[in-house]
Every structure is written in structure tokens, then in C-alpha cells.
Amino acid sequence: MVQLKEVLNLYLGCEGKLGSSEIIFTLSAVQSVSDLIVVRSSNDSRQGQHVDPKNFKPILRKLESMTEEEFNEFKICADNDFAKMIVIESMSKDGDYTRLCHQATSQAYLLSKHFDLFNLISSSQAIDKETLTNKK
Hints:
136 residues, alpha+beta
């Protein structure tokens, strides 16, 4: 299972919550040296707070929530990636064959829309944006 701290840097700009607070914060920076993150309150975006990432839950979207317009944009990214696909093939010591396809543009698009690519919602490390929207 992927741990949030391993992929949190991919979600810069994502909104989230600290602990049980109802205030929405934006993830501004991930500091690898101090193992802290910087978040900015939606109430006061000028001043950042350094917090332990264990207290931060990003607000993400499930892939199923993708709109038709977003899907069409994603297809364009994926088509561009396919034309520029980098394929890395390797064989492990055990004889297992691995083929990795690097599709940076389409992954970057999904991350920019704050889609949960690492099952963080199902592992309770992130908040499903749909549940927040439906509570209003």
C-alpha cells in the first residue's frame, strides 16, 4: 500500500484538512529535510504553516468523478503520450520480465485535477471530494 508521505509532493496545490479542523488548507510545499509540509489557510493565503504530514488529509477525487470534458482532455494527453512513449524493458534475476511505460503528460494531467491515483481515499489517507460536496 502506498503511504501518503511517499506521494504527497505530487499533489502540490491540492486542498486538504488538518486533523478535525473544518478549515480548508492548500498544500504549498513538501520539505524533505525536515519532514514537514507547508500549508496555507484559505482564510489567509499569505502565511504558511509548517505541519506534520500525518495531520494533513488531501481532498482528492475518485477517477469515476471525471467529467466528459476532462475525459476528452485526458484522451488528448494520452494520445500525445502514446506518440512519445518511453518503454523500459528489464528482466529481474528471477527471470521476471517487466515493461514500464512512462506516460508523464497524462499522469500530470490527472494529478493536476487532484485525482486519487494511489488509492489514498480507500486507505483513509485522503478525503473524497464527493463526500464533502454532498454534505452541503
